[in-house]
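Propose amino acids for all 279 sites.
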C-alpha cells in the first residue's frame, strides 16, 4: 500500500510555527493512510472536521483533535481501531538523527493511545494493556511514545515498568530510549509523573541498564533523565554520578557531565567537582 507522511523541515525554524507540521497536508496524508486499511473510513468527513478553525490551534492540541477524530471515524472497539492505526504506518526510522520534524505526523497516533487506551468506556470490557504496549512499541520506532507511555506509568506503574524492562535489550535504539525518556519525571511538553518526582528510585534500574548503551541517542536520554531528577533530588544524582565515575569510559563521563550541566550554573560545589572528575 502507498502510505505517506508530509514533508517537513529538518529543524525548528525561527518564525515557522511547529503546529504547521500538522496542517492540511498532514490531514490529507492521515485520511489517505487510514482509508487504505479501513474501507469505511470517511475521508471527506474527517478532513472537513480536522480543518475546521484549525489555524489558532497549537501542535499538541492539533494532535489531540486529530486523535478524537480518528476515534470518531475508526471502527470500535479500541483494539479494532489500533489494528487500523498499526496497519497504516510507514516503515520504521533507520537512524536516530537527521529524521527531521516530519515524524511529528505520528503525534495524533500516540495521542489516540494516551486518550483511549486506559478508558473503560472505549475498550468494551477488555484489558487493553498489551494492545497499547504493542502499538507504542511500533510507534516509538517512527516518532516516540514518550508522551503516550506516561498515563500508563501513572495509572499502572508496576506493570508498565515491567514492560519497559523487557525492552531494555531491544535491538532498536528508539525502543531503548523510550525506556529512559518515557520515565523522566519532568519530561518537557508532557504530563509529569508525580510519583517519580516524589520518589525516582523505581526508574533507576532502567538508567543503570542504559548508562553504557551503544547509542548516544539513548545515553543522552539517560543524562537528561538524571538532570530531571537533580531538580528535586540533587544529592541522589550526585551519588549516582559518583558511583558511575568508577571505571567510567569517556562516553559515560560525557553522560555525567551532561547530566550535571544545570547544577554547576548555580555553582554547586559537588556538581562542579564531579564534572571536573568526569573530564
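Proposal:
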Amino acid at each position: 500500500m502507498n502510505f505517506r507522511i508530509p514533508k517537513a523541515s529538518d529543524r525548528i525554524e525561527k518564525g515557522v510555527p511547529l503546529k504547521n507540521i500538522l496542517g492540511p497536508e498532514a490531514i490529507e496524508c492521515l485520511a489517505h493512510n487510514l482509508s487504505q486499511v479501513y474501507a469505511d473510513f470517511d475521508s471527506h468527513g474527517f478532513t472537513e472536521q480536522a480543518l475546521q478553525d484549525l489555524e489558532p490551534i497549537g501542535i499538541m492540541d492539533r494532535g489531540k483533535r486529530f486523535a478524537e477524530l480518528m476515534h470518531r471515524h475508526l471502527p470500535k472497539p479500541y483494539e479494532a481501531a489500533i489494528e487500523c492505526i498499526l496497519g497504516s504506518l510507514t516503515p520504521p526510522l533507520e537512524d536516530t538523527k537527521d529524521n527531521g520534524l516530519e515524524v511529528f505526523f505520528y503525534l495524533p497516533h500516540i495521542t489516540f493511545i494516551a486518550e483511549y487506551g486506559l478508558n473503560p468506556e472505549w475498550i468494551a470490557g477488555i484489558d487493553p494493556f498489551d494492545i497499547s504496549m504493542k502499538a507504542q512499541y511500533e510507534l516509538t520506532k517512527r516518532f516516540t511514545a514518550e508522551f503516550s507511555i506516561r498515563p500508563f506509568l501513572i495509572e499502572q506503574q508496576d506493570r508498565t515498568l515491567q514492560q519497559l524492562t523487557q525492552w531494555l535489550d531491544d535491538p532498536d535504539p528508539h525502543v531503548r530510549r523510550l525506556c529512559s525518556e518515557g520515565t523522566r519525571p519532568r519530561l518537557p511538553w508532557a504530563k509529569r509523573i508525580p510519583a517519580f518526582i516524589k520518589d525516582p528510585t523505581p526508574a533507576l534500574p532502567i538508567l543503570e541498564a542504559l548508562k553504557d548503551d551503544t547509542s548516544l541517542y539513548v545515553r543522552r536520554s539517560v543524562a537528561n533523565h538524571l538532570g530531571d531528577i537533580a531538580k528535586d533530588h540533587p544529592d541522589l544524582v550526585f551519588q549516582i554520578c559518583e558511583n558511575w565515575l568508577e571505571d567510567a569510559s569517556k562516553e559515560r563521563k560525557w553522560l555525567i557531565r551532561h547530566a550535571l550541566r544545570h547544577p554547576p550554573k548555580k555553582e554547586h560545589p559537588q556538581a562542579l567537582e564531579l564534572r571536573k572528575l568526569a573530564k
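The chain has two domains: 1-145, 172-279. The two ends are 51 Å apart (CA to CA).
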